[in-house]
Write a structure and sequence with these properties.
With 442 residues, this protein is α/β, with parallel strands linked by helices. The chain has 14 helices and 24 strands. The strands form five sheets. A seven-stranded mixed β-sheet has the order 6-5-4-3-2-1-24. β22 (406-410), α14 and β23 form a beta-alpha-beta unit. α4 packs antiparallel against α8.
């Protein structure tokens, strides 16, 4: 079998991998990389696309799925395979991407073909596709996220590859961790977002305690707390988190404003609650309390109300997109709030290189922000609520896969991917950090 890395190699963004057997070529993920100055796409040629028989999507984050409109506009007519939550979330993500980026090469005909192309797959339900057997497994990253396991026979011998997409082994507020039971494969393609030697997530309880204390301090002083978030999963996790602490009295009762496409995604989570962990299902089915429809949440329906939110006395919490400050409603809020040291911004998710979020995380007080210089006097703090596996989790994954020999490391900054590769090599795995465009046989 053969892997061709068209995106996500030595970088975070535009994940896209071609997998070829003797008879079939498929694509695993097809995302975009959103940059302030220019978006970046997988390095996919028309010739390569012509031979692709199927596309398999691990989850509905834009860096894994939002190149689909381009692919169908290039002439792809095959199927797209994903879970039900991924299908529903993907529609929202693509619509938002199209609205904000308006890519000129995407056609109406391509979008129409894309909408009709999806085939829904359940977890742990292997199915045949051409000469391959494909199975989706819970990845624990966002609702509907999947590891993709693919087996094909070559020269009478079975070859199996497992692609993690984005993975989280630990349970979160909403989801159980990844399903790695009874896995057998000779090749693993794994993410490495937090693959650096010291990339271990903080203790969850201590992180929560410090975050709540920080928010409370700002609110009691009359300031506003701005929490940029990815619309899918990070926002839902942090909203449930805030709701729990507000209901318990550990946070003062102030409005929690929800802006951007987060509310649409909340509804999709509610409709797909059977994909969430049992505790969340029980809360909804066995009581009157619905964590996705809390009275503490105030949905921002109109842009015109944003100014009034800023001017309110007594403080508030604003949870909005985008998580890396590259676009969306957060641009308005940050420009209005950044100059007042009484306000606070809390970063909860990964901040990619080259984004305003990364610059503020690293302590910069003045950033290039959407065609202007922005002086930031508000406090900026980081309290990770990551849905990615940290270094310790990533170290443990190969041990859970029988007969594993080869590991390819993607979806990570180069130095983090290389640091993780060094660890795997010490454990005697044949480990490669592929470069963009490289082809590898296994």
């Amino acid at each position: 079998m053969k892997l061709t890395f068209l995106g996500g190699a030595e970088e975070v963004g535009r994940s896209c991998i071609l997998l070829s057997s003797d008879r079939t070529k498929i694509m695993m993920d097809c995302g975009v990389k959103i940059e302030l100055k220019k978006n970046e796409y997988p390095q996919l040629t028309q010739k390569e696309l012509k031979d692709v028989k199927g596309i398999f999507i691990s989850h509905a984050h834009l860096d894994h799925c939002c190149f689909l409109p381009h692919i169908f506009s290039m002439g792809y007519t095959g199927k797209v395979f994903c879970t039900k939550p991924t299908f529903e979330l993907l529609q929202v993500q693509v619509a938002d991407y199209m609205r904000l980026s308006n890519p000129p090469d995407v056609t109406k005909q391509g979008l129409e073909r894309m909408v009709k192309s999806f085939k829904i797959i359940e977890y742990r339900a292997p199915f045949k596709f051409e000469d391959m057997t494909v199975e989706f497994l819970k990845a624990g990253h966002i609702v509907g996220s999947a590891l993709i396991k693919i087996t094909a026979k070559e020269k009478g011998r079975e070859r199996t590859v497992i692609y993690t997409g984005d993975i989280n082994l630990m349970q979160s507020k909403l989801l159980e961790g990844a399903d790695l039971e009874n896995l057998n494969a000779d090749t693993l393609v794994t993410e490495s977002t937090y693959g650096g030697k010291d990339d271990n997530h903080p203790n969850e309880k201590e992180n929560a305690r410090q975050m709540v204390a920080s928010i409370k301090k700002t609110l009691l002083a009359g300031g506003n707390v701005l929490i940029p978030s990815f619309a899918v999963q990070r926002a839902q996790e942090v909203l449930v988190f805030l709701d729990d602490f507000m209901n318990s009295g550990q946070l003062p009762k102030v409005p929690i404003y929800v802006d951007g496409m987060i509310n649409k995604v909340m509804r999709i989570h509610r409709h797909n609650v059977i994909y969430c962990k049992k505790e969340i299902q029980s809360k909804i089915l066995m009581s009157d309390y619905d964590p996705f429809r809390s009275d503490n949440f105030v949905v921002v329906e109109e842009k015109s109300t944003r100014g009034k939110i800023i001017e309110e006395q007594g403080g508030s919490i604003i949870v909005t997109t985008s998580g890396m400050l590259t676009g969306g409603p957060v641009v308005y809020y940050l420009k209005r709030l950044a100059g007042d040291p009484a306000n606070k911004m809390i970063l909860i998710g990964y901040q990619a290189e080259g984004t305003p979020g990364r610059e503020l995380q690293e302590g910069k007080k003045e950033v290039d922000f959407h065609d202007s210089k922005l002086r930031v006097r508000m406090t900026v703090e980081v309290f990770p609520m990551s849905a990615h596996a940290d270094r310790k989790q990533l170290e443990s994954i190969p041990k859970k896969i029988k007969n594993l020999r080869n590991i390819f490391i993607v979806h990570g900054e180069k130095h983090k991917a290389e640091a993780l590769a060094e660890f795997y090599r010490q454990k005697r795995y044949n480990t490669i950090v592929p470069k963009l465009g490289e082809v590898h046989n296994f």
